[in-house]
Design brief:
CATH class of the largest domain: Alpha Beta
CATH architecture of the largest domain: 2-Layer Sandwich
Number of domains: 2
Strand order of the largest sheet: 3-4-2-1-5-6-7
CATH superfamily of the largest domain: Dihydrodipicolinate Reductase, domain 2
Strand content: 15-25%
Bound molecules: NADP nicotinamide-adenine-dinucleotide phosphate
Order of helices and strands: EHEEEEHEHHEHEHHEEHEHEEH
CATH topology of the largest domain: Dihydrodipicolinate Reductase, domain 2
Structural class: alpha/beta
Distance between the termini: 14 Å
Number of strands: 13
Shape: globular
Helix content: 25-40%
Length: 331
């Protein structure tokens, strides 16, 4: 396969390169693209160096499959009206809710690809992916009437500038120095030694764009437009690894053992034994979504709670896209 990576110098792009190598994806040619800032930079892949290019005319003829990991505006400019033959797996939000574009987590809704004629496949948000995997496993036993979720999202979820800002803030706080403006550009408040209950922008009702994405994308992937999802998304001063506290409310008491079995047998989910914890530190670099603390609510057994954690750069982004590519090239 001729492979193209657009946004090759970013956090997701670099993770994509690492995983392609790790999994032995069949790469016959590699084309790497980024902004003008990175033109000429050399990146190593399988012992060879490749020069980073800007995206020029006819870029889509340079590969058979593209992994696109650039921000929304750049993706929109590049891909709106795309009519090329190459597959494009896009990580931005631009096409996720487009009814003509499949939004895919291979373990959950691979069928969406066959039902569409689009050459663009959208990769869901990094919080949506672990959430819908667990929810799909739960729904195989019983559909919850509502789900309440608090997502604790690491700094790398906002890209390399965000990670650099967190690191800078750490240095200033450790040195007990006043924070200059250039260490407060990405996040709406200081993140280090803090939490920020805002990801994206708020609408009139006070819901953030990230919270809306989590609900709408989950409904589309699960094919359940009525699913009641109540989300709060919080940025936390963790470098890599998103965690979610999830509560599912059912009509009647559910068999929690059946839910545990369904989670444990779901491809890509690891059910952590009772009494063991899983934190972002342990999930960094791992492929799977980890589920821990599965339990009944002590006051109402129609409610179950669980804790999820996954590497947002891997299953939350690059790995999910590569799994899509693997299925496209080897159905
Ligand atoms: N981080 C995550 O956990 C995560 C998870 C799921 C989805 N996503 C989505 O994936 C995308 C990339 O995220 P990221 O975290 O990798 O961001 P990032 O670290 O900020 O990287 C952005 C990449 O886009 C490139 N770029 C910027 N302008 C460009 C242009 N005009 N033409 C070509 N390339 C350009 C950058 O190149 P330069 O280095 O030259 O600036 C860089 O390679 C975003 O849409 C994000 O929402 C991220």
């Amino acid at each position: 396969m001729r492979v193209g990576i657009i946004g090759a110098t970013g956090l997701v792009g670099r993770t994509t390169l690492r995983i392609l190598e790790e999994r032995g994806f069949p790469v016959s040619e590699l084309a790497l693209f980024a902004s003008e800032r990175s033109t000429g930079e050399r990146i190593e892949f399988k012992g060879e160096e490749y020069e980073v290019m800007t995206v020029g005319e006819n870029w889509d003829l340079l590969a058979d499959i593209f992994f696109c990991s650039v921000d929304d505006e750049v993706a929109r400019g590049l891909l709106k009206g795309y009519e090329g033959d190459a597959w494009v797996i896009d990580k931005s939000k631009v096409f996720r809710m487009d009814p003509n574009v499949p939004l895919v987590v291979p373990e959950v809704n691979w069928n969406a690809v066959g039902e569409s004629e689009s050459r663009i496949i959208a990769n869901p948000n990094c919080t949506t992916i672990p959430f819908v995997m667990a929810l799909d496993a739960v729904r195989k036993v019983e559909r919850p009437v509502r789900i309440v979720v608090t997502a604790l999202q690491s700094a790398s979820g906002a890209g390399k500038a965000a990670l650099e800002e967190l690191s800078l803030q750490r240095e200033y706080l450790a040195a007990d120095q006043k924070m200059p403006q250039d260490a407060k550009e990405v996040f709406p408040q200081i993140l280090e030694a803090n939490l920020i209950p805002q990801i994206g922008s708020f609408d009139k009702a006070g819901e953030s764009s990230e919270e809306r994405k989590l609900r709408e994308e989950s409904r589309k992937i699960l094919g359940d437009a009525e699913l009641q999802i109540h989300a709060t998304c919080v940025r936390v001063p963790v470098e890599v690894g998103h965690s979610l506290a999830v509560s599912c409310v059912f009509e009647e008491k559910v068999d929690i053992k059946a839910i545990g079995d369904s989670l444990a047998s779901f491809s890509g989910i690891v059910l952590v034994p009772d009494g063991e914890l899983i934190t972002p530190r342990e999930v960094e670099g791992k492929d799977e979504v980890f589920c821990a603390r599965l339990r009944y609510d002590p006051q109402d057994e129609r409610v179950i709670h669980m804790w999820l954690a996954a590497d947002n750069l891997k299953k939350g982004a690059a790995l999910n896209a590569i799994q899509i590519a693997e299925k496209l090239t080897n159905p």
